[in-house]
Amino acid sequence: MKQMKPVFAASILIIFVSCLIPSLLVLPFSSNKTNSLQIHSPHRTVKRTGAEIEVSVYRSMSNKTETLPLEDYVAGVVASEMPANFNIEALKAQALAARTFIVNHLYFGGRSDLPGGANVTDTPNDQVFHNKAELKKIWGKDYQENFNKISQAVLSTKGLIITYNGEPISASFFSTSNGYTENSEDYWGNKVPYLRSVKSTWDDSSPKFYKQVKISAAEVEAKLGVHIPANGSIGTIISRTAGNRVGTVTIGGKSFTGRQVREALNLASSDFSWIRKDNDIIFTTKGYGHGVGMSQYGANGMAQEGKKFTDIVKYYYKGVQVTDYLSMLEKQNGKKL
């Protein structure tokens, strides 16, 4: 394709995007010579400088919006969400999940409730993110070594995302399984074909595999809105999920899902058991996180056994493909972009 003048090229590109892919928010740009380009969508304006897509992150501590290139954002997420001492292939798998998450947000419209035109927050509500200055404070003398390793993982997977039926997936991930991941509908209620329960036998090496927490019976009663009898009985686990977490449970004569109890009591996992000791209830949990999608400690275990990042993501996300989002768009539009 011959080089067009910047203004004319930008105009044609905007018309092209508007006509052929109105739902699309991001489009890799083939020229590095354009100074600035804005693509408008029904949801927001996605900015691009040169060849770089920009991500706007609402910083929860400063209440300001920070805008940065997509790959820098991915590096900040990987550095914040996964230990830097993990195997490089696990870090690559995390980079794929993080990049897929933000591309999915941009592709489908994401959140429109954030101030300053932000696409995402920097909290677990989206993905935890720290910028370079913050990582220097967190890592101290290990900053350069850690960030070099993270950057290697991000650069070696640059532009790659995880797709299902040609679209970016909802790439959920969590810290530590209880030995299995969870079917999406057993935790979130919606059945997603690529978020299926699988064995994850590597997770028992995680320091978060088991956890105990003591909560007073009075606090449990208040948070669950129940009355627990003084005779020592608390409740009964009625069913378990495909991932061997608590499906339904009765406590104080009232029925709950495992997720409801976990979130109300701030437990590490919805795979829990309990014993009563005097006026306290001691909960023992197995695993850490919601359990849906990729287990981070499982990914590291697979990597240590020699599995590549593509093997890892295809194990935890069923029936998916690893592709770059430019190829995804070309396939959708039936022509070279």
From TrEMBL:
Residues 61-164 form the Sporulation stage II protein D amidase enhancer LytB N-terminal domain. Keywords: Membrane, Transmembrane, Transmembrane helix. The chain crosses the membrane at residues 7-29. PROSITE patterns: PROKAR_LIPOPROTEIN (PS51257). Coiled coil: none annotated. InterPro entries: Bact_Sporulation_Assoc (IPR051922), SpoIID/LytB (IPR013486), SpoIID/LytB_N (IPR013693), Spore_II_D_firmicutes (IPR014225). This is Stage II sporulation protein D.
